[in-house]
Amino acid sequence: MASSLICNKTQSRVSSVLNRDVKQYGKKFMFDCNEETCWNSDQGDCQWVLLEFPQPVNVSKVKLQFQGGFSAKTCRLEGCCKDGDLMRLSQFYPEDNNCLQISFLLTDLTFT
């Protein structure tokens, strides 16, 4: 069983926060393991999450959970090595519900 690559040294950035209210909807709530909280973006065509890992990582799958009724229509995974240009790795179409979704399985990708 794979464990999460997210650790306390993983840096994250997001495209926006709903009404700029980081106390209620900030990025810190994405990985707090509390189903009562979440990151909430403002409206817009392109919302994104950027993760920078403190060490090289092997990515084999990505799990996402949306609030029902607020799912993205199209999602894509991009990645790169440090200071490299992002490249598209996968694209998927999530279900509009609040179930945990294993959005895609990847052949182990390593980013350093």
Can you put this structure into words, describing what you see?
It is a single chain. With 112 residues, the protein is mainly β. β4 (75-79) and β5 form a beta hairpin. The protein starts with 10 loop residues before the first strand and ends with a strand. The longest helix has 4 residues, at 22-25. The chain is globular. The chain has a two-stranded antiparallel ribbon. Strands 3-6 form a two-stranded antiparallel sheet. The chain has a two-stranded antiparallel sheet with strand order 4-5. The chain has 1 helix and 6 strands, in the order βαβββββ.
Features:
single chain, 112 residues, mainly beta, two-stranded antiparallel ribbon, two-stranded antiparallel sheet, 1 helix, 4% helix, Nuclear receptor 2C2-associated protein, receptor, Galactose-bd-like_sf
Gist?
This protein is mainly beta and 112 residues long. The chain has one helix at residues 22-25, and strands at residues 11-14, 49-52, 57-64, 75-79, 87-92, 101-111. The protein has a two-stranded antiparallel sheet.
Order of helices and strands: EHEEEEE
Quote the average pLDDT.
Answer: 82
* Basic shape: globular
Low-confidence stretches: none
Largest sheet: 2 strands, antiparallel
Kindly name the structural category: mainly beta
Evaluate the radius of gyration: 14 Å
Work out the helicity level: under 10%
Tally of individual helices:
1
Kindly report the spatial arrangement of strands forming the biggest sheet.
1-2
Distance between the termini: 22 Å
Strand content: 25-35%
Q: Give the total of beta strands.
A: 6
